[in-house]
Amino acid sequence: MITLRPVEATDLDEFFSHQLDPSANHMAAFGAKNPSDRGVFDNHWQDILNDRRITVRTILSDGHVVGSILAYHDGEAPEISYWIDRSRWGQGITTAAVGQFLNEVTERPIRARAVADNASSIRILERWGFQQVGETQGFAPARGAVVRELILELP
């Protein structure tokens, strides 16, 4: 069973362990340049948790912390972002979490971004009705390279 709840302080240790996975960092691309720097991680999460414009939830699978999902305003529409423990990829957890989150965060349009080679994330977003509305390129610290990023929108 997949559920969402507000982030608790103890969740951050689990989130930190998720970001240490090299494959997950590669797919996310825009994570920290040095994912093992706990100080940078803690500062980043304090900024998220202290910003009232950000809606953030912990994703639970059968009561276990498996990731996070959030929506923030950075332009004309809110944008969602999520991170799931790589050991849980391919189990439908992200798909279910995105659906639940979209029921909670109802402002539309809402956007998401995915590196163009992250087919799984793009497929999840498209399942919920997101459509590509643009693309951009940006430097991805986790890859140390410029990547193509798709911009998707749910009208």
List keywords for this structure.
alpha+beta, globular, seven-stranded mixed β-sheet, 155 residues
Spell out the blueprint of helices and strands.
Layout: E1 2-6, H1 11-19, H2 22-28, H3 38-50, E2 55-61, E3 64-73, E4 78-84, H4 93-104, E5 110-115, H5 119-127, E6 131-140, E7 145-154
Parallel strand pairs: 4-5
Antiparallel strand pairs: 1-2, 2-3, 3-4, 5-7, 6-7
Q: Could you characterize what this model shows?
A:
InterPro entries: Acyl_CoA_acyltransferase, GNAT_dom. This is N-acetyltransferase. Residues 2-153 form the N-acetyltransferase domain. Keywords: Transferase. GO terms for molecular function: acyltransferase activity, transferring groups other than amino-acyl groups. It is a single chain. The protein is α+β, with helices and mostly antiparallel strands and 155 residues long. It has one domain (2-154): 3-Layer(aba) Sandwich (Aminopeptidase), CATH 3.40.630. It is built from 5 helices and 7 strands; from the N terminus they run βαααβββαβαββ. A 7-stranded mixed β-sheet has the order 1-2-3-4-5-7-6, sandwiched between helices. It is globular. The mean pLDDT is 95.
Q: Name the shape in a single word.
A: globular
What fraction of residues sit in β-strands?
35-45%
Please tell me the overall pLDDT.
95
Helix content estimate: 25-40%
Number of domains: 1
User: What is the class in the CATH system?
Assistant: Alpha Beta
Strand line-up across the major sheet: 1-2-3-4-5-7-6
Radius of gyration: 15 Å
In the CATH hierarchy, what is the superfamily? Gcn5-related N-acetyltransferase (GNAT)
Q: End-to-end distance, in Å?
A: 28 Å
* N to C succession of SSEs: EHHHEEEHEHEE
Q: What is the level-2 CATH architecture name?
A: 3-Layer(aba) Sandwich
CATH topology: Aminopeptidase
**Any low-confidence stretches, pLDDT <50, length ≥5?**
none
> Largest beta sheet, briefly?
7 strands, mixed
Summing up helix and strand content along with how strands pair, one would put the structural category as alpha+beta
